[in-house]
Structure formats: structure tokens, C-alpha cells
Amino acid sequence: MSDRDFAATLAKGLDVLSCFEQGAPALSLPEITRRSGLDRAVVRRLCLTLVRCGYLEESPAGLRLASRVLTLAGGYLGRLEIGRVVQPILRHAAEQLDMEVALATRDRLQAVYVDRAAPASARVTLGFGIGSTLPLLHTAVGRMLLARSTPEVMAETLAARPTLPYTEATEMDPTRLSAAVETARDQGYCIARDEFELGAAGVAVPVGTLAQTPFVLATTASVHAFDDPAGLDRVLDVLRQSAIGIGRMREA
Amino acid sequence: MSDRDFAATLAKGLDVLSCFEQGAPALSLPEITRRSGLDRAVVRRLCLTLVRCGYLEESPAGLRLASRVLTLAGGYLGRLEIGRVVQPILRHAAEQLDMEVALATRDRLQAVYVDRAAPASARVTLGFGIGSTLPLLHTAVGRMLLARSTPEVMAETLAARPTLPYTEATEMDPTRLSAAVETARDQGYCIARDEFELGAAGVAVPVGTLAQTPFVLATTASVHAFDDPAGLDRVLDVLRQSAIGIGRMREA
DNA sequence: TGCATGTCGTGCGATTATCGCACATACTGC
DNA sequence: GCAGTATGTGCGATAATCGCACGACATGCA
Fold this sequence. Notes:
Two copies of one chain form a homodimer.
Chain A: H1 8-18, H2 29-36, H3 40-52, E1 56-59, E2 62-65, H4 68-79, H5 82-97, E3 100-107, E4 110-117, E5 133-135, H6 140-147, H7 151-159, H8 174-187, E6 190-193, E7 200-207, E8 215-222, H9 229-246
Helix pairs in contact in A: 1-3, 2-3, 5-9, 6-8
The first copy, chain A, binds a DNA duplex through residues 1, 4-5, 7-9, 28-30, 39-42, 44-45.
């Protein structure tokens, strides 16, 4: 490359790490080669380096992420005071609403959970936790995030929209998707039903000042949980109150 | 370096990332230069690369970790099925014991929380969550992890032991520290009081088969919570039952 | 057995990306 | 004005990286 301010080797190594983002169990060297598009020998050396640096570990089935990435995430979470400030607020909101509540932000063209709390009554877990990702276009969380992102991000996201619907209710038309995000921005909250997972619905509200990267607070429940207008108002009230508390997050 | 199978640039870039592990709010370029010991120009280019790859972001106060590291951690957590399998078990145990319960593993010479659950009754949070780190030598979690690690790790950890005690109760003598780990290995659980944080006590039990990296299940409470032998037995019972359930973690 | 396919390790020459000094600038407080 | 610190960047020498290529091994099928 011609760019003198870009360390290609580092970028390639990070590309290799990215291959593990979707929760792949364990990847073999040829698998990583295929996914990354790099040379086989290069992949091997990068992986060797990543193992020696503690980011990957070898297993019988191939390479996999090591606990190191957790420590790194701990740095991110610690900076935002997630454990000390955010978690109690989420817990309180979850109990008040008797619903799952989550704080999310954006990582490139997807939403990612930053923290989450479930009420004590919750028997089943959906399996979403810190670090879980959701699509931006077809969830309440994602649309609220898009509503607070730059037009460039919106355009990129639309350009990269999926070709196959998640469910029978998934909105596929780009114009109507844009409109949904627009609506979220205008009314200050977003609600989505059935589009990503049948039988599930979500409500999201913005958090804090419009910092560099937006944050949203959201709750998830079964499809008809938000059908009653008064009930929805209560949900929005609780979420917004919590959002104010969280809004004081350290934005150094 | 002479090693042909080691990408130095990648390692340096990861070193830069490591500077943010301790939850630093935001680091300036000179700060990172000091911490990493690399050349100023190199740090600048590596940081530029990390920003362009989405791992760091610029803020008025300097550079800081971006949400990307969360997505990466999500890959790790997803592989272990933390959200789907582990979280419900931890929640159940936390409710049974009415105490905080956590799953932890080892990252180099420290313990790191993989998942955590607090009972509904918990009003205050200690601020420890996923990705939080603890010392290996002076916590129940850490000693139980050491008891299941290789002698090399034990030796390294002892060699790098802190020079200053955390509290007045911190055990500083390497021989007695070794003995404490030995005891944990022999009796199949570990209990520590006051050594890391005054007024706090922890109990830890091993999880699963001795895989590559050990996992432990632990609970934390106020100092005298485990003084009663019958009470301790109940805690151990619940933890061990939960550990069996978690033991089926995907170890691909 | 022979051949195809896939994986893995690695030697090595050519290339080029990286290093790190160096110069230049700007801002602070005194 | 000056010392101290942060920042941007040009450039030559060096050393690290690339990626082809060769050899080895295992597996499956005809």
C-alpha cells in the first residue's frame, strides 16, 4: 500500500481476529484463510503471533478466541462505569417493567449489547448478552441507533441490507426502512415487532447527549407487550428515566 | 527480531491496545508512548491504524477503546454459550444463595470474570462485571484457578507477586501463598477473606473437566458469610451443582 | 496401487513496509 | 523569550514481511 500511516500487518492481524466475531466455535487455518482472503502463509504467521500474544488459543478443533478479549472488553466497560453505574439502573428498570432491559451501541453496521439486565421473574433467557450483535435495520435498538447516527452510516447500512428476510414480517423496502428510522428520530423512540424474530417486540429510546457514538436503552418482550398505549407509555417513562441516569456516563 | 513466524508489527499494535486494558478513560499519544515503550512515530501510526480498523476512537481527551472490542468479546462469550446456558445457571445459583455468583477464568496472570449474576435482593453492586480482573494470589477465585493451572503459571505468578499488600490481611509470604493454593487443590474449593478487599470474602469451586484453560465458579459476600460450617457446606453444594451444569460448556 | 484433494510446515529471494531519527510547528505557563 | 510538552511528517537505511514453491502427510475413491 502507499499509505505510510497505515500498518498493514496490524490491520491484517485484526482482520484475522474479526473472523471469530460471529461466535464461531473454532476455526482451522484454511478456514481463516478463506474468510480473510489472505495468503495461507501469512495467516499462519499472524495466528502464531496472536496465539503468542494471548488473543487466540489452540484447541483440538482449531483456533479460537482466548479470554484475553474479555479483559480488553473489560477496559471498555470499565471506562463507561458499566458495572458501577449502569448495571444497577438497568436492574432497577428491568424489575419495574418486569422485562429484559439492555443498553446498546453501534459497532460499524450492527448494534451491540453493552449491558443487559433481566427481571428476577425471567425464567428463559434469549441468549443475548454483552457483546451480542443485532441488525441495525430490523430491530428497535438498531433503528434508534441509526436515527442518531450520521447519514453516511445510514446510507452504508441501507446499501448493505440483507437480501433475505429474517421473518415473514421483515421490512425489505429501503424507502420504508428509511421512513421507520425517520419516525424513530422524530418521535424520540422506536418500536419494532416480529421483524427480526417472530413473536418478539422491542422498544428503544436514546441515551445521553449525542456523543460520538450513540447509545440507546431498549427493552424486549413478546409481540403484544406494547400494544396497549398506556402500557407503552409506562415503558417509555421507565426507559427514559433510566436513560437520564445513564446519560451521565463517562464520556471522557 | 530473528523469529520469522512472528509479526512484530501486529504484536506492537496489540501492545498498544493492551494499554487500555485497565479501564483508562482516554489516553493521549504521549501517554501510550510511555506505557508501551515504543517509538512516538510508531505509536502514532499504529493508533491511526487501530482507529481506522475501529478498535480505537478519538475523543476530546485522547484515544479510547471503541465498541468493537465488545463485539470481539461477544464472539468469545457466544462460543461458550454464556448467554444461553451459563447465565440461567448463575442466576439460579445467585437466587438460591442470595449472593453474587460469578464464572471466571484466567487471562495471563490475572483472573477475569466471564459472567456474573446477582440476586434480586442485591441493592449495591461492587462494580465487578464481565471482563473485570482480579489478582490470582489473593482471591478465592484466583487461587482456585492457580490450583488448576500448570506449575509454570504458578511460578510466574509468584515471581510477579505484588510488593505492596492490598489490605492489612493480605498474605505476602510466597511459601504460605503456595500452601494456600495447594490447600485449594486438595480440598477442591477455596475460601479467602479480607485479603484483597477488607470486609469481603469469597468461595470458589472448579468447573468442568480440566480443559486447556481452567474455569471456576465463585461467590462473594461479606466477611463472615462463610464462617458457619453448615452454611459453607450449603454454598459449596449449590456452587458444585451449578458447576456440573456449566461443565458441559462447549469446549470445541 | 495410483491419483486427487486437503492440510500443514517452511525455506528463501525480492520487495516493500516499517522503523526511528530528524526537522518543523504550536501551545502552555512562567 | 524560554523551557517543556504535544503534534505532524519527510526520508533513508534496514529489516521484516510477503507469497511462491517445494516437500510431507493423511484421507478417500477408483
